[in-house]
Design a protein that fits this description.
Layout: E1 3-8, H1 13-24, E2 31-38, E3 41-48, H2 51-61, E4 67-73, E5 88-89, E6 95-103, H3 106-115, H4 126-136, H5 141-151, E7 154-162, E8 169-174, E9 179-183, E10 186-190, E11 202-205, E12 210-215, E13 218-223, E14 228-229, E15 234-235, H6 251-257, H7 259-267, E16 271-272, E17 275-276, H8 286-291, E18 294-299, H9 301-317, E19 321-326, H10 327-330, E20 341-347, H11 353-364, E21 368-373, H12 379-384, E22 387-389, H13 402-421, H14 427-448, H15 451-460, E23 466-471, H16 476-490, E24 493-498, E25 516-520, H17 526-538, E26 543-548, E27 561-564, H18 572-590
Parallel strand pairs: 18-19, 18-20, 20-21, 21-22, 23-24, 23-25, 25-26, 26-27
Antiparallel strand pairs: 1-4, 1-10, 2-3, 2-4, 5-6, 6-7, 7-8, 8-12, 9-10, 9-11, 11-15, 12-13, 13-14, 16-17
Helix pairs in contact: 1-2, 3-4, 4-5, 7-13, 7-14, 9-13, 9-16, 14-18, 15-18, 16-18
The protein binds 5-amino-5-deoxy-1-O-phosphono-D-mannitol.
The site of 5-amino-5-deoxy-1-O-phosphono-D-mannitol has 16 residues, from helix 9.
């Protein structure tokens, strides 16, 4: 969380930094700041609020410099004030830095420095780092940073400028993402590689315990002892245009509309002639698959819900013992994992601290690890190694949409491929599911064509007190995701329950102000779910039904119906989630919420 950016080169530094920060706002947006070197002096500008406010302030004051660093903050230590906003400058005015992460022993460092007479000015943990550097700096930046890395504990991506080195940006990383880029006569660093796409596609992802010097002439890399090493670049296959909103009012809406293409793209090269084939990406053998008795799916938030979809689908044709665990819990529980375990980590960003720590634990216990991520070269990709990449392109809206559908596509393929390797997936099921998956993009497009009707339904419920989402079997996981989307962007309370569980407690909350969104596809659980709809109606709850096209009977229970195309039972989550995303989007829009940057949330959660 927090986004950082640094630039040295021939362009307008303030413009490059501010535009780069705007691309990082999804990572934090409570305050922002920039610092440059001008005429041998460090100058800074900070504000509470968004990068746009910082840009206005910079414009008014003609803020300019030759080399610069910037930050958009998601507060952890210290309130949201201009004083606590980054960059932070040492009391002697010689060093300035921005930081993403948490310095755990900040209090100790502060006490030690205060005892030496150093004056502190903020409530942040970050200030301990800059004051420490100011205290030890004697003209050799590398040496000062080496000392700092030995003194601080915690997670950090630091971008640092020294007042007497106007051509040098220094960076150091442990635990928080940081990427470095270089083009002719200019150098960059950022938390998110998408901020660099406009300038270069060949980047260096910083590793833990690594520092770098970025100059106009090039970049050098060192370990935390200051020893230099060579580092290969990684090529980014994303396009800068993918990070624009186009004609859409919000990234979230654009990303919802990209889903037919994303699913088609995810299937490309992985299915052909009715068969799934992941052998180009996974070097697994039938012996491997036979050895793995257990599958642990580990993730957070939306990615976790994607794994619940996978679990439900895989249970219909495989014999694995499957667990789906929230990464922040997995880490601290004693869940047996070893050579008989395949641990699958799912993370859109590939930077989620909880998921990363859980992966390290599973690896240390001897499990075979696989990651499913949207960001090639992300920390979890580099650490786990074996990966399936979701080709969804950059997702900018904080609420995940297209990456969820990409994840469930790839997870479904993974489940089928594994079961096939074990000889558990019969050819007929494989053919049936592959053919139905190929039809999903068209079906999603047909749901998107109903956007106006879904929007009208959503607007009618924008003043509700909260929502329940219910579903049975494979209708339950999309209910979870639908409720999460609504919570995240509309700030309305929403909970999902397996429909049959309502009567065991939650039903007590039902009344005319608490609508129930019932996912009720045609199939063997239809009648049971309809009974739960009736129970809700008896408590006066308005019902919104997500039902199968042609289901006329559902009209007896409610007039608020979102019809979805028929599909195989296993694939209902694909079909159900898109109208729920639109439903949440239009409720949030009606309520005037900040859809792409909902309060208190950050897209990539790099703290525990
Ligand atoms: O990048 P990750 O998939 O690891 O992120 C996990 C969650 O933080 C993320 O899914 C979060 O729940 C989103 N805001 C969902 O919209």
């Amino acid at each position: 969380m927090c986004g950082i950016m640094g630039y040295v080169g021939f362009r307008d530094t303030t413009k490059v930094i501010l535009e780069g920060l705007a691309k990082h706002e999804y990572r934090g947006y409570d305050s922002a700041g920039i610092a440059v070197i001008r005429d041998g002096r460090i100058e800074d500008l900070r504000t509470v609020g968004r990068v746009a406010q910082l840009a206005e302030k910079a414009e008014r004051s003609g803020f300019r410099g030759d080399i610069g660093i910037g930050h958009t903050r998601w507060a952890t230590h210290g309130g949201v004030t201009e004083n606590n906003a980054h960059p932070h400058i040492s009391s002697d005015g010689r060093v300035v830095l921005v930081h993403n992460g948490i310095i755990e022993n900040a209090r100790d460092i502060r006490a030690e420095l205060e005892a030496c007479g150093v004056k502190f000015h903020t409530e942040t943990d970050t200030e301990s780092a800059v004051q420490y550097l100011g205290h030890v700096y004697d003209g050799d930046p590398k040496e000062a940073i080496v000392k700092l890395t030995k003194r601080v504990r915690g997670a950090f991506a630091l971008v640092i400028i020294f007042h007497d080195k106007p051509n040098e940006i220094w960076v150091a990383r442990k635990g928080s993402p940081l990427v470095v880029g270089h083009a002719e006569n200019e150098g960059f660093c950022a938390s998110d590689p998408t901020a660099l796409l406009e300038f270069t596609h060949d980047v260096w992802f910083m590793d833990d315990d690594e520092m770098a010097l970025i100059k106009r002439e090039g970049c050098e890399f060192f370990d935390f002892n200051g020893d230099r090493h060579e580092k290969p670049t990684m090529h980014l296959d994303w396009d800068a245009a993918m990070t624009n909103r186009g004609a859409y009012p919000h990234f979230m809406l654009k990303e919802i509309h990209e889903q037919p293409e994303v699913v088609a793209h995810t299937l490309l090269g992985r299915v052909a002639e009715g068969e799934v084939d992941l052998s180009r990406e996974l070097g697994w053998t039938a012996e491997d698959a036979a050895k793995w008795k257990k599958i642990h799916f580990i993730a957070c938030g939306t990615s976790h819900y994607a794994t619940i979809v996978a679990q439900h689908i895989m249970e219909t044709f495989g014999s694995f013992e499957i667990r789906t665990e929230v990464a922040s819990e997995y880490r601290y529980r004693n869940i047996p994992a070893g050579e008989d375990t395949l641990a699958v980590f799912v993370s859109q960003s590939g930077e989620t601290a909880d998921t990363l720590h859980a992966a390290r634990l599973a690896k240390s216990r001897g499990a075979r690890c696989l990651v499913i991520t949207n960001v090639r070269g992300s920390t979890i990709h580099r650490e786990v190694g074996e990966a399936l990449i979701t080709p969804a392109g950059p997702e900018i809206g904080v609420a995940a949409t297209k990456t969820f559908t990409a994840q469930i596509t790839i997870l479904t393929l993974l489940g089928m491929y594994l079961s096939k390797l074990r000889g558990e997936l019969d050819a007929e099921t494989e053919k049936r599911l592959v053919s139905a998956m190929m039809d999903i993009p068209g079906k999603l497009a047909s749901i998107l064509s109903q956007e106006k009707d879904i929007a009208a339904t959503a607007r009618n419920f924008a003043d509700a007190r909260g929502f329940f989402f219910i579903g049975r079997g494979l209708a339950y996981p999309p209910a979870l995701e639908g409720a999460l989307k609504l919570k995240e962007i509309s700030y309305l309370h929403a909970e999902a329950y397996p429909a049959g569980e309502m009567k065991h407690g939650p039903i007590a909350l039902l009344d005319k102000e608490l609508p129930v969104v019932a996912l009720v596809p045609k199939g063997e659980l239809w009648e049971k779910t309809v009974s739960n709809i009736e129970e809700s109606m008896a408590r006066k709850s308005p019902i919104i039904a997500v039902a199968t096209e042609g289901d006329e009977e559902i009209g007896h229970y409610t007039e608020n119906i979102i019809f979805t195309p028929e599909t195989e039972t296993e694939l209902f989550p694909f079909i159900a989630v898109v109208p729920l995303q639109l439903f949440a989007y239009y409720i949030a829009r009606q309520r005037g919420c900040d859809i792409d940057m909902p309060r208190n949330l950050a897209k990539s959660v790099t703290v525990e």
